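Components:
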Amino acid sequence: MSQSLSHSRSPGPDSPSPPGTPDTSCDHIAHLKSLILLCAPRKSGRELAELRAKLSASVDDEGRVVQHLKHRLIDVENEASNPNKRSRRSRNHRTEGIEEQTVELTATELETRARQTGRKFVILCGLWLCLADDDYDAFFKADPDDEYDAELRFNSDDDIRQGQLREVLDILPDDLMPFRKRTWLAQAFKDGMNSQRSHTRTRLRKDVHHIVPEGIPAARVATQQSRIQHFRSLIGWDEEKNRYSIWNVPFLHGNESATLDFDEVFRHPVLLKIFACIIRGSASADGVMRGTSRLPRANVMQRIHHIEYTMPGAIVDSAIWAIWLFSGDEDFLPTGDFTAINYRDRHDEYLDKILEGLRRQQKWARDLFVFWDSHLFPSTNGSHYGGGVQQDHEEDRGEIEDATDAMLNMPTVSDAEDEDEVD
DNA sequence: TTTGACCTGGGAACCAATGT
DNA sequence: ACATTGGTTCCCAGGTCAAA
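Structure:
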């Protein structure tokens, strides 16, 4: 049918009748389905219009099922009236959700779900997968390693992959699990990731006036030269060392500290506004710091993906987006095209510290999530990662300072491209 | 009931890099 | 030289809900 992708890369699940046969088996639905089947691409526009009219006239009360069938009919119409254009994928089936299991999942819909999961991964977990040879297929064909140790997650690429694989499996919908190792799933997931990055990149730059800190004219972000001129030091440019610092970044700190401060890092309004933009649209960014950012009526990412609390990857993603947004980089690539910042490695570095802080139950890490949740999800009861609000004891503060010192004084190696951050 | 605002995913066109 | 693949950007149709 309409979804016949000319690309060989999307064969769809092998089975012609995927699991989840429709249980809405009334004659009404069967009739509609027969109408759909009549819509061969050779039908004339008029015939299609008649069929569509019949469809519209006979449906009022079958909700999602009908909507779904209409979508497919529209697909067929489009295909029939424009035989020369590229084959198109089905429209997104927006009403899907975890609780909805009554609609038959066709190959196209499974593919759509996989693509959506790829989008979700970019929003909540990470911007890129750590792949060997850019091979998504191999990534998805791998099995979770029983020996994997979360504490060593960032020791090697293999460990990073294992960590990411677990994140993927965490958010992969149940009905996709049987197809986890299929090539089409890897391809669709990749499509989703790429698409989400591209859209976010374009939309953040377009809507940047919602994001720039108060008092800064949005025009300063408009051109590459202007961004370099006005924001280079704010995103960590070190004039003396002639490099971009990884941690001494004012735009990461709530108080714009130019040196690393774990009690302030990842708290800059820009980060929270960016996350608000991504999950509920640019207009919602305005009230974030006043706690008045509300969920808009539209079907935003927060609704689609049931996002109810802040996740570590979301904070890190926002940090990366923030640095890129005010940088001289034009495209959003793993390594900046102007700054040469390695965003992918930096993402891992930031995530490492947050996860480590959580694992050690350090106060700064927990408070960080309380901070984010209180601004972005004020109505949510307590913080998932923050473990609820904690009292501010002197000993806690002393302990965290000790831990921070200890972390900073750990030995470093200097054979990497990036010099050591801390001397 | 219609309109409008706000937001999304994806088609289409395009460009660049890579394969053959 | 041509084909394929990967990625970006522009634009549009569609969902939702409040206001008219």
